[in-house]
Amino acid sequence: MISFKKEIYNTTYLHPRKDFQKIDVFAEARYDPLTGHRVRIYGIEWKTKRVDFFYLGEKSKDRCPFCKDALERMAARFPKDFLEEGHFKKGESTLIPNILPYAENAAVVILTKEHIVPMGKMKKSTIYDGISLIFEYSRKISSYKRKDYNFAHLHWNYMPTSGGSLIHPHMQVYVTDTALNYHNRVLEKAKDFKKNTGQEFFSKYLKKEVEEQERFILKKGRCNLLAPFASKGMLGEFLIIIEDSYNYREILDEDIKDMAEILRLISLFFEAKEIPGFNLALFSSPIGEEVILNHIRIYPRVYRDVEVFATDIETPTLLYGESFCLISPEKNAKDLKSFLETNYDNWED
Ligand SMILES: [Zn+2]
Q1: What separation in Å is there between the alpha carbon of 250 and the centre of ligand 1?
Q2: 41 close to 27: Cβ distance less than 8 angstroms
Q3: How far does residue 126's CA lie from ligand 1's centre (Å)?
Q4: Residue 281 CA to ligand 1 centre (angstroms)
Q5: How far is the CA of 310 from the centre of ligand 1 (A)?
Q6: Three-state SS annotation for the chain
Q7: How far is the CA of 259 from the centre of ligand 1 (A)?
Q8: What mean pLDDT do residues 63-72 have?
Q9: How far from 13 is each of 44, 243, 279, CA to CA, in Å?
Q10: pTM of the model as a whole
């Protein structure tokens, strides 16, 4: 069964701003209910500082390969027997081959004509077009290569804090038969869970989160948004679980619309908190297997210190795999809910 395991630990020191009195500081170690991954959570008031991406954007505009003229003239094209037009297009989004061989099939969607779209300014329809193009490409490459590729690893590095080197908004996908490393771990653990309980993990987990109402935020259609019990990001994490949907081909047009709407709401929340970027990734079951529900993880990314470009990922996180979260998932969920309630009138495009 699913358990929300946590332990309290403390550290003691003589506090420099409290007349060097001896104090105990308490924190929590929580364990991901599926993978057992430990995160350390300590609620501290930590404010991000605004990053001027317009300035950086202007500096990088001249050499941007995704701005309109360069994109039409210079971007890689698909072979004509695969796609006569060379690029997939929908609305203002364009999907092109990724020139770096990240995977057997790797593509990039350039989402907008605008070179820079800061947090909160991306339209819902643009997010919808981008995700739709990724699944259109994934289906088409499968039939072109006469293979039932198991996965469409949709992911998004939004803004340079996320590691994205190009500021021009773009999403990516790898269409492969194999899971990526962490995804593999999730699948293995979910297989064990199913073997032991006869049930799919994320359906059970979602049910428990809905019952508890501590971290559950909202539901649109089949998409459920929550702040996961063991959030990994320095400023927490959000999770969208799509009910009754196991592999990428089972994600319907309505689901993409709901996902786009939820992502827009999250981006408005991030804008209000001055979080300039995020990482996002889709996790699915292989075709024909019901191991995990389709779900999307969204991980806010900030500079820890804007002035020295310190990132929010340090050695313990990167090399030891230890996660430190400065905000509790419960507070993150509560803050997002109250933000949406306060700004309800501004939800729509
Ligand atoms: Zn550009």
Answers
A1: 33
A2: yes
A3: 16
A4: 23
A5: 25
A6: CCCCCEEEEEEEEEECCCCCEEEEEEEEEEECCCCCCEEEECCCCCCCCCCCHHHHHHHHHCCCCCCHHHHHHHCCCCCCCCCCCCCEEECCEEEEECCCCCCCCEEEEECCCCCCCCCCCCCHHHHHHHHHHHHHHHHHHHHHCCCCCCEEEEEEEECHHHCCCCCCCEEEEEEECCCCHHHHHHHHHHHHHHHHHCCCHHHHHHHHHHHHCCCEEEEECCEEEECCCCCCCCCCCEEEEECCCCCHHHCCHHHHHHHHHHHHHHHHHHHHCCCCEEEEEEECCCCCCCCCCCEEEEEEECEEEHHHCEECCCHHHHCCCCEEECCCHHHHHHHHHHHHHHCHHHCCC
A7: 25
A8: 90
A9: 17, 47, 36
A10: 0.96
Question: Would you list the domain boundaries of the chain?
Answer: 54-205+238-296
Token representation of residue 116: 């820079």
Residue 347 has pLDDT above 60, yes or no: no
Question: What are 118-168's pLDDT values in tens digits?
Answer: 999 999 999 999 999 999 999 999 999 999 999 999 999 999 999 988 999
CATH T-level fold of 54-205+238-296: HIT family, subunit A (3.30.428)
170 CA to centre of ligand 1 in angstroms: 10
61 CA to middle of ligand 1, Å? 5
